[in-house]
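Exam review. A common question shows you a sequence with its structure tokens and asks you to describe the fold in words. Practice with the pair below. Do the first one on your own.
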Amino acid sequence: MPSTCVSLVCLLCFCACASMTGKSATCSDPEALFIEGTVEAKEGESSRTYDYRLLKPIERADDGPRPLLVFLHGVGERGSDNLSQLRYLPTWMCSPEWRTRFRAFVLAVQCPDDEIWVASWDDAGTCRAIFAVENAIEHLIQTEDIDPSRVYLTGLSMGGYGSWALAAHRPDLFAGVVPICGGGDPGTVERLRGLPIWVFHGTDDDVVPESDSVEMVSALRTAGIPVGYTRLEGVKHDSWTDAYRNEGAINWLFAQKKRP
């Protein structure tokens, strides 16, 4: 895992409303569509309040419970504004096309500036920030009309690491996971047995080495656990645009459902 976060600032340079699979899509104002919330989390005796945003689905008269998509942002979106974490996928999920197609809840917790989604840059284990995401998911399942068999997890860069960590910590919560340009602890793969996972990484990533994803994919396959892996040839760190828009990761996630 990289020991410095400086180069990850490049995550901020991409437009959140880029074209969608060759089609133009108008993104509605995410700040207006995502409601604000807070969640508490503890690690040992230390507790903290974390901000989150929640997009609610477009309602229909014949609706039942709807799926929940959980997004973990990258290091460049950390902070305390409860807004920066809406870059990329949460904003794209606001487009009329995707809101109509998926009709899902979308959760985006913001990691503070002084924390990351894993224990440390040298330890891909869980941490208080990840416990906050876990607590938010459980709270929303209890208070919103969410289908608990259709909860999905994805994240990019630092959020890719967080996706591996949270999936290993609570595999029972999720119907599918898409970690993008991240990495995890190969010692946790047995916990992921039975959980559908599709991994993405650019071959020319100059921020997070592709080997971090390859290590997890190899460990899963060695354990006889199925996993999808897409190597994006010639792509640098921004592998999420291809994964989410062109490679079908979102369609695949929403097709997953936990077995009873």
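Now try the second one, then compare your answer with the model answer below.
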Amino acid sequence: MAEITPINTRRDGMAVTGKQASDAVHCLQIPMYEESILLPNAAVAEVVGYLEPEPQPGAPDWYLGKITWREHKVPLVSFEVASGGQDPGALDGARVAVLNTLQGNPRLPYIAIVTQGLPSLKLAREEQVTPDSRDLGDRQSIAGFVQLDGVSLVVPDIDDLESRIQRLQVV
């Protein structure tokens, strides 16, 4: 009897089998000011237009305040500043990516980061992703760097970012 291979999607004009699709991770490549970040789709609750935060007096420069998203008060951070990068300054075309947190804290189910445009969907297969040899140096809240289809991307450390927000005692 012939083996049946289910086809469940098409990528770049080529059929992708069920096995190949299960070996891949659906991700979002999210543009920032100087870099782009890569997150699994499941980590991103929603991307919305920029929302002006309620500032928190005395907070570090990377903590922008809280936004109201779907009746939740969500901490908004500049990931670029939090990770040791440049402050993007102008917010023309900025968006907010609301991320699901990972530590299961009911007081902090989401955190939000400022992005510089719309994310693009990526299907990351093992053979397409390679470690990027860039040194983290003293940058924080970064799990590492990868190359996906030849593009260098930052992989955020959401756990670290969540812990830093909790230490501010603003939740």
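Model answer, second protein: The first strand starts at residue 7 and ends at 11. The mean pLDDT is 87. Full marks require stating both points clearly.
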